[in-house]
Amino acid sequence: xxxxxxxxxxxxxxxxxxxxxxxxxxxxxxxxxxxxxxxxxxxxxxxxxxxxxxxxxxxxxxxxxxxxxxxxxxxxxxxxxxxxxxxxxxxxxxxxxxxxxxxxxxxxxxxxxxxxxxxxxxxxxxxxxxxxxxxxxxxxxxxxxxxxxxxxxxxxxxxxxxxxxxxxxxxxxxxxxxxxxxxxxxxxxxxxxxxxxxxxxxxxxxxxxxxxxxxxxxxxxxxxxxxxxxxxxxxxxxxxxxxxxxxxxxxxxxxxxxxxxxxxxxxxxxxxxxxxxxxxxxxxxxxxxxxxxxxxxxxxxxxxxxxxxxxxxxxxxxxxxxxxxxxxxxxxxx
Length: 334
Fold this sequence. Notes:
Blueprint: E1 22-28, E2 31-37, H1 40-50, E3 62-70, E4 84-88, E5 91-95, E6 101-105, E7 110-116, H2 123-143, E8 146-148, E9 151-155, E10 158-163, H3 170-179, E11 183-186, E12 190-192, E13 198-200, E14 205-209, H4 219-226, E15 230-232, E16 238-243, E17 256-268, E18 275-278, H5 280-290, H6 300-307, E19 311-317, H7 321-333
Parallel strand pairs: 2-3, 3-7, 10-17, 17-19
Antiparallel strand pairs: 1-2, 4-5, 5-6, 6-7, 8-12, 9-10, 9-11, 12-13, 13-17, 14-16, 15-16, 18-19
């Protein structure tokens, strides 16, 4: 007698055939990303993050992210566990615990984000640490883009990378630059074609410290910032999360061609000169030191070779962030 499976046993122990009937499609970093889910709450977070963004390319690269909601554990305490990195056998991932994780299969063009209902109470962590991880890794690697810890603003089709440590004032600088008419591409995650030196980003939010309000003279803009939700970083720092969509902010309508690499410094300027030109060797040394992860990725050598032909600058603080934004804008008129 041959063995027969016991149909009384669980037929799908991993839940891999559970139907995901809810769908969303967003064009992100030039790729068409389709989200499949069994949860309206998870798709609402996707829309909050990615709806209404500039397309930045014709698409053509089809990727899929599965968002699965499980009951899992009973609770997560005051804050979810900090995610740990996973990698091997062609998979990349992060996991907060056994129930809240994201896995990316770059070769297959697919990712899985599995979370518990308890994590819905922490939308900031869910969005940035799991969903954003899956989207950024999947789209960037599928498009052959180099991910940089850098902001980017521009004018017309020209762009400038903004690089600086936390507290250097990049977000306030970007807000002041937008007020002067510069186009915003991304706050701190730029994705660059290492050969063409075109930068893409997701221009959804700008995160501002509370003390940034004192530099905002426009009453309507100040009111908009004060009405924005407040997020709390794992460091304990709280910031306004300013939604840049809706037509009020100048967002880059297409990828920006890099012309400048600007290192924002927290040091005050000496005299009236905020910008100091960097020679190629100093610029590239700073670039290496500021991008330890990107420096180990494919495409880094081509990116560095291209950056050697760009203009490098150190931007120091002026008496008002607007002075830095004016100096930044001046680069595009040179």
